[in-house]
Amino acid sequence: MIKYLMFFIGLFFFKKSYWMILLSLIFLMMVFMLNSLDLFSLMNVSNYLGMDLLSFSLILLSIWILILMFLSMVLFYNMNYNLEFLSGVMVILLFFLMLYFGTLNLFLFYLFFESSLIPMLLMIFGWGGQLERVEAVLFLLFYTLFVSFPLMGGIFFMNYFYKSLSMVLFMKVVLSNLVLYLVMISAFLVKLPMVFVHIWLPKAHVEAPVGGSMILAGVMLKLGGYGLFRVLIFFKKLNFQLSNFMISLSLIGSIYICLVCLHQSDFKKLIAYSSVVHMGLFLGGVFTMSSWGLTGGFYMLIGHGLCSSGLFSLINLNYERFYSRSLVLNKGMISILPSFTLWWFLMLSSNMAAPFSLNLLSEIMIINSIISHSSFTMILVFLVFFLGGAYNLYFFMNSQHGKFLLLKNTFFNILSREYLMLFLHWVPLNLMFLKVDFLMMWV
Q1: pLDDT tens sequence across 369-408
Q2: CB 215 within 8 A of CB 175
Q3: How confident is the model at residue 31 (pLDDT cuts 50, 70, 90)?
Q4: Which of 3-7, 65-69, 167-171, 221-225 has the lowest mean pLDDT?
Q5: φ, ψ dihedrals at 150, nearest 5°
Q6: Alpha-carbon gap, residue 378 to 369, rounded angstroms
Q7: Which positions ≥6 away from 64 have C-beta within 8 Å?
Q8: Is 405 in contact with 332 (CB distance < 8 Å)?
Q9: Confidence band for 415, pLDDT divided at 50, 70 and 90
Q10: Whole-angstrom distance, CA of residue 198 vs CA of residue 280
């Protein structure tokens, strides 16, 4: 599949490369879906590359979100915002993501994990709307690099003692070094992000353009989740000993972030913080290391990627019409754009895990795994889900009901391209439950 991405590089020299890359991504998606690989075990494509159902699904999600991102940024293209260069940056990002999800070598795993940061920084710094984007870039750099160098040191330490960097080998070895465990998982906890190391995420979302927010929420946060899936297998014994502490920390942090969401007035910040809540639940399920917890975490990565990307694209559609992201000013949308309200309802209901979204199935499995692991967490889990529903209802009621306050009288209706983009977010998110038995074969 990498050879198809090499073909994309030549498209940058065409005048209409934006549309050509979009069509090529659709072609790549079709080719990728029609492959006949055995995905139910970690299959080696070469000495350094391999793939299983987890990596295959996340690569597929990356291509899908990138296609939807191109559809969402057509207005940028029409306004001549140098979108050809931006599309090139995004294809390079996809190249790094595919290699990251497909590598079996720990050093390449680290290399592509950090390389994917460069296109994201370029997007925020080059196409961000305000001067505060410099601060957002610095926060993102500081948090990521502060934990990435210890990760590199841990990988070299493993190579020195075991004379190998093969992930397949380390999956069969039980490591018991506490410092190595903390060093290896800290980089992925920051990227996820875990509560208390999440400050960079709202800043990056607020300053990023719509495509940047969609990629950041839909794909970039999944880098940390994928890394945890791969690395925690190396430390089964240590993880079992520390799991109660990590699960409690994740759930308490999620409750705190839910309360933060309830007094947000900025659309983007609220959805950014809701991503932290979902990732806290993901951590709770994964640290149980049970089959239900791992499968529920896998479902949450896919469901959250589609749902959060759809919500950020909705925020952009709202901003293109009313030039505001404030909950104070954006009221009474149901009276002027009722079809817009329908999409807000569909996306927010999926975000709060209403039937039949994939998020519902993932959260049911995570609840079962956490409570089975320790019944004392039942109250914490209840509070997370109660407050999670509360801030989604708060968002919907404040934005869609009430008196319309914006004085701008000229705005345009939702376009067919935008309906298509929202539809392509919602359909896989809510119809994937029909074939979840296929995804369960990964664990």
Answers
A1: 999 998 889 999 999 999 999 999 999 999 898 887 655 5
A2: no
A3: confident
A4: 3-7
A5: -60, -35
A6: 11
A7: 29, 306, 424, 428
A8: yes
A9: confident
A10: 11
- Helix axes 17-33 and 2-11, enclosed angle (nearest 10): 170
The structure's pTM equals 0.92
Express as a percent the part of the chain with pLDDT over 90: 47
* DSSP secondary structure letter of residue 292: H
Q: Report the chain's mean pLDDT, rounded to a whole number.
A: 86
Q: Three-state secondary structure along 137-185?
A: HHHHHHHHHHHHHHHHHHHHHHHHHHCCCEHHHHCCCCCCCHHHHHHHH
Q: Are 347 and 355 in contact (CB under 8 A)?
A: no
Instruction: Give strand pairing partners of 103.
Output: 49
CA distance 260 to 185: 26
CA distance 90 to 22: 11
pLDDT mean over 73-77: 70
Residue 50 host element (H or E): strand 50-51
CA–CA separation, 250 and 384 (whole Å): 10
The span from the CA of 288 to the CA of 272, in Å, is 25
For 217, which DSSP code? I
Instruction: Determine whether 435 is exposed, middle or buried from the number of CB atoms within 10 Å of its CB (0-12, 13-18, 19+).
Output: exposed
Provide φ and ψ at 47, rounded to 5°.
-65, -30
DSSP letter at 415 equals P
User: For residues 65 and 296, what is the distance between their CA atoms, to the nearest angstrom?
Assistant: 21
Beta strands 50-51; 43-44: pairing state: antiparallel
